[in-house]
TrEMBL record, chains A, B, C, D:
Residues 34-53 bind DNA. Transmembrane segments: none annotated. Keywords: DNA-binding, Transcription, Transcription regulation. The keyword ATP-binding does not apply. This is TetR family transcriptional regulator. It comes from Virgisporangium aliadipatigenens. The keyword Transcription applies. One of its GO terms (molecular function) is transcription cis-regulatory region binding. Residues 11-71 form the HTH tetR-type domain. PROSITE patterns: HTH_TETR_2 (PS50977). The lineage of its organism: Bacteria, Bacillati, Actinomycetota, Actinomycetes, Micromonosporales. InterPro entries: Homeodomain-like_sf, HTH-type_TetR-like_transc_reg, HTH_TetR, Tet_transcr_reg_TetR-rel_C_sf, TetR_C.
Amino acid sequence: MSDDASPSRAADRTQAILRTTVELAQEVGYAKLSIEGVAARTGVGKHTIYRRWPSKGALFLDAVLTPSEPGLDYPDTGDIVADLRRQICAAVDLLGRPPLGPLYRALVGEAQHNPAVAAALNERFIRPQADKTVARLRRAQQQGQLSADLDLDVAMDILSGPLYFRFLITQEPLSHEYVERVLDALLAGMRPTP
Amino acid sequence: MSDDASPSRAADRTQAILRTTVELAQEVGYAKLSIEGVAARTGVGKHTIYRRWPSKGALFLDAVLTPSEPGLDYPDTGDIVADLRRQICAAVDLLGRPPLGPLYRALVGEAQHNPAVAAALNERFIRPQADKTVARLRRAQQQGQLSADLDLDVAMDILSGPLYFRFLITQEPLSHEYVERVLDALLAGMRPTP
Amino acid sequence: MSDDASPSRAADRTQAILRTTVELAQEVGYAKLSIEGVAARTGVGKHTIYRRWPSKGALFLDAVLTPSEPGLDYPDTGDIVADLRRQICAAVDLLGRPPLGPLYRALVGEAQHNPAVAAALNERFIRPQADKTVARLRRAQQQGQLSADLDLDVAMDILSGPLYFRFLITQEPLSHEYVERVLDALLAGMRPTP
Amino acid sequence: MSDDASPSRAADRTQAILRTTVELAQEVGYAKLSIEGVAARTGVGKHTIYRRWPSKGALFLDAVLTPSEPGLDYPDTGDIVADLRRQICAAVDLLGRPPLGPLYRALVGEAQHNPAVAAALNERFIRPQADKTVARLRRAQQQGQLSADLDLDVAMDILSGPLYFRFLITQEPLSHEYVERVLDALLAGMRPTP
DNA sequence: ATGTAAGCGAGACGGTACGTCGTGTCTTAGA
DNA sequence: TCTAAGACACGACGTACCGTCTCGCTTACAT
């Protein structure tokens, strides 16, 4: 008697809870987010949340990642430098600024206290992105656009790391101009040119 | 009544509280650390803690940074690559592994939720280290050991970032060998050598 | 499809639920008894219980009274004192000690909070017993074995009351010897014999 | 700095909580009384209640008994029958009708589920009253106003029991006329007068 | 040397949230 | 059609900390 348009009560509720979680987190911040509050605002019993997620961290992870998961697909225009620039700027625009930025920052913060969140963050978001990046880098390397000596796993870290450092540690804003400067430095290398 | 050997009751108490905080954090983790617990274990009234620190985060920051503050002085042997390697390895050994590693990780995590902690972490630890690093890099650049084009502020980020990325995000262990690979990649640059 | 040997699925289930209720109440006490628990232990849906009884109290009343209802028939040997002694001792033995005693005590306790239970307890158990008692007392009075002045309704209360008082209020054990002492006092009266 | 008129914060709060408990119990009944509700209405943290009483039953016992404890003093006019009548009627008027009646009924009900409440009820209320009653009966017996054979401990039970039976079991109202009828029956005895 | 204040331990207090349990209603799938 | 299973909104449980507050007691300073 139920048609495709109303797939299941359970999924409806799950979505509603995730939406409220994002809303509330944006209003009061992750630290003051509470399962009690999410339940009340969604009009849902606390148990309905605990049945789905074991902790505030797990709920928050789902709430932040679910909408952006199919988000950052990798371009391949043939020009690795342009593609990296495009991809990194997209990531910075999505995760490095409001509205998602503060939530993503809080999510990474939570991962430092909660190993389950750290693991899930890696598996659901970081590793897939890294794999795509490494694959793209490998193609570029094979085409001679990157140094044959370049250690591709490390390349992933040196491309992401500086931005995460600025995002999490010094907490200065992330501009496209900054991305450019990082890319320039990485491409050229630190050693004096002969 | 107080002599040099017991400089001040207040300082004694402060030290005792900081010691307990580290102890307790190592035992139960930052998430389950509580001011109530620190007070009880130290044998101190809660007020005595609140009089000194405004929040658990601030207390924890002091507890983690106080002992390691006079820690990572920069060497200058004349060889910038050797000095960087030495310095980064020292930092990794101190902050990247037990016993201090988990505490430092939690501290950075807390900084994501608490702007005051983020600011204090930067001012008391990150910025001073960065300044020393940049100064050392500048000398090397002037001596021709680094590319004249190198953007020194960015250099600081690309040296630290990859290690923080691995420490905070993928949470894989930090070995000296990994430091070496990062340095190699950064020095050589990603572009193919002509 | 159902024959005499399996009178009805419904009745079977009802009996099973009542049995579990008694079992569980004996194990954990009435206060910790729950419909949820009874359903789980019986292997029955909660609805199947709610369809039959409106509340825990009503279920418990049925569970306690059903087996003992056809219990306390009144003897008439011609000797009213002997009959009262026999009857009261039987009641005390059945309801005043384990295994049924604690359940009956809890049932009366529940009746203090739940008027429906109080009413049902009276109608299904107390009043029928009282009617039989009064009838027996009336015969005895007509035969001259009891004072012609005796107020028979009150007689019922003064025979039962002291035992209930001891059972519910002072919660001291009920022995046959105690029954004897009560009967002696009631028969003789408190006034000095002239 | 504090004078006799403001004895202590603690006692103030205790009294406020007990008052609210009685109020709330009268409004919603014992079954729906909750520690949460009492705390909210009193404007007090739940812990402040749990610090003082281990359970709803214990709190309720205090709330009901505290005001009426110094309540039912025994008269001695020299006429035991008149004194019993006076005393029993006073008890019936206080505990057998609103406002206290329903609370006392609920208290006795709770005692059936909670041994601690049963014990406290006995020690703080029932036994002291019983002791006074027995003492008064003993004087009357020595003066020849009661049968020399009367078993005084049992006398206590047969005086109280019928009223408790009516109060708790049949739950009919308790009138002075009923008290009279019980006393008449008990004084005269059930045996036919020769 | 003696007030007098400041710091202190202890812990009560009003709150908020926790994670769990049971209620009574409702839905779903299977017999 | 009735059932078992269990999701659901709700409300209360009893616990844990929060940050504030009052208590006496002990230091240590200023008179």
